[in-house]
Hints:
Largest sheet: 9 strands, mixed
Low-confidence stretches: none
Mean pLDDT: 94
Radius of gyration: 18 Å
Distance between the termini: 27 Å
Oligomer: single chain
Shape: globular
Structural class: alpha/beta
Amino acid sequence: MxxxxxxxxxxxxxxxxxxxxxVSMAAMLGLKAIAVTDHDTMAGxxxxxxxxxxxxxxxxxxxxxxxxxxxxxxxxxGYFLSPDAPQLKEYTHWVTEQRRERNGKIIEKLRAKGxxxxxEELEQQYPGTVxxxxxxxxxxxxxxxxxxxxxxxxxxxxxxxxxFVPRKxxxxxxxxxxxxxxxxxxxxxxxxQYGFDRATLDKLVKTAADCGFKGxxxxxxxYTDSDQSxxxxxxEKYSLLPxxxxxxxxxxxxxxxxxxxxxxxxxxxxxxxxxARSQFQ
Length: 281
């Protein structure tokens, strides 16, 4: 069975492998296609595309956006977008400025606790990257303040912790409009990760469908057969396509591998074929 992985992060955002190496790993694992879906940027697409041509892996240009739904950070995947679309450039410029402002506020809180961190140092350490909390977490590890990214979020950076700063997010509807304006299709990412009860999850999926989303991520690292069955029911109820991806981040999410997630994830190529066809429907 041909396999794909439609949710992968690189060093263009908060992954720890460069786009070229991500494609190399995908080729080694026998995947036919992958989607590079970095947070709020498509900066890794060109490098991934060049590697894909050499190694025989189809590269789907993608992005992952943060949106607001009932005061919760809900993620949206966009596929088949044009990286040069003016609407996308406008959005990425806005979100870069928002992230820089937020990062500065987080670092101020950490410095008040005695941690020797500066925004300028981080920007020099990660040039050309959309900086976020995972990079700050890595710096805390380098300083010996924590042993892992997970611990950094649990102690300092996660929601409700002492150094957490909320970020501004667009709505689900605006995310769908942006992705459509850039020639792409919108998919609801990892819908069980938000901790919603059944009624709120149903409302989320219905809202996404009403906004013009084409798919819902059903095949995902750690999701059980029962989880997938629940999501298939919602996909059928609201006429959404099943999609899937590992959400690979390299060392920032240990145990999750490209194309296989936790070892049980095998995403069939037909989900990509259906998604591609949905562009023209």
